[in-house]
Specification:
Blueprint (H helix, E strand, L loop, with lengths): L3 H29 L4 E6 L3 H11 L6 E7 L4 H6 L4
Parallel strand pairs: 1-2
């Protein structure tokens, strides 16, 4: 009854609209702050800056860096951990 190419184009347009709708809604919710996860980076310096830059380059930002934590003496930190 219908041509065969109509099924192909319907499937193609369905995929296009679903992915574009999810991307647009994800961007809107990310800008509004509903999809963000607060992250505390342990350490500072070049590595922390590279992690921050890579997280900022994501198209839909799911992580929000709330700060950096610098450990000056790891032995003092191990004394305070209770397992």
């Amino acid at each position: 009854m219908y041509p065969d190419y109509l099924l192909f184009f319907a499937y193609l347009f369905m995929l296009l609209f679903i992915f574009s709708f999810r991307f647009i809604v994800g961007k809107i919710l990310s800008k509004a702050g509903y999809l963000t996860i607060p992250v505390l980076l342990v350490g500072a310096g070049k590595t922390a800056e590279l992690v921050k830059k890579s997280l900022d380059r994501m198209p839909i930002a799911t992580y929000k860096i709330i700060g950096y934590m610098i450990i000056l003496n790891p032995l003092l930190l191990l004394k305070n951990i209770h397992v």
